[in-house]
Amino acid sequence: MPKGKKPLKKLNSIQKRDALASRKLSKEVLIGYGDDFLEREMVYDAMEFYKAAEHLEGLEMVKLKAIELGNAGALSWLEGYRITAIDEADWRATAENAERADKYAYVELAFRRAGDEEKANSLREQNTPNQPPPEEKRE
Fold first, then answer.
1. How many whole angstroms separate alpha carbon 18 and alpha carbon 104?
2. Per-position DSSP letters for the chain, written without gaps between them
3. Interacting residues of 115 by C-beta distance below 8 A, sequence separation 6+
4. Residue 71 in contact with residue 43, Cβ under 8 Å?
5. What is the pLDDT of residue 134?
6. Residue 23 — left, alpha, or beta (φ > 0 → left; ψ -120 to 50 → alpha)?
7. What is the pTM of this model?
């Protein structure tokens, strides 16, 4: 916690929803919650608080953390907000980080978003469980 800042109250999911919906929190408090969530690698929560505060720098930090964690889902959400640019290199780095973290669904998604359908399809084939052969009918 930075010197001079008082600790923020921990929020449960209902309190987070209410805080975001109330529009009563100052921009600074929203950013503070975003910082707290990002520090705990809770990228989706951080993203929502930064978005509510219209804090572009915070959303850029979420982007970098999502890439670092291999979290292609969070990167997809950010892309949907159309606030921060996400390019092929970002998607490739996310895919590589997701692969190191054994997040195979994210690896496939990130390679698809990077435009590498061949790699994404290859991963899908590798990670699809083999189906047992059909049973023979007995008469």
1. 34
2. --TTPPPPPP--HHHHHHHHHH--S-HHHHHHHHHHHHHTT-HHHHHHHHHHTT-HHHHHHHHHHHHHHT-HHHHHHHHHHTSS---HHHHHHHHHHHHHTT-HHHHHHHHHHTT-HHHHHHHHHHHSPPPPPPPPP--
3. 88, 91
4. yes
5. 52
6. left
7. 0.80
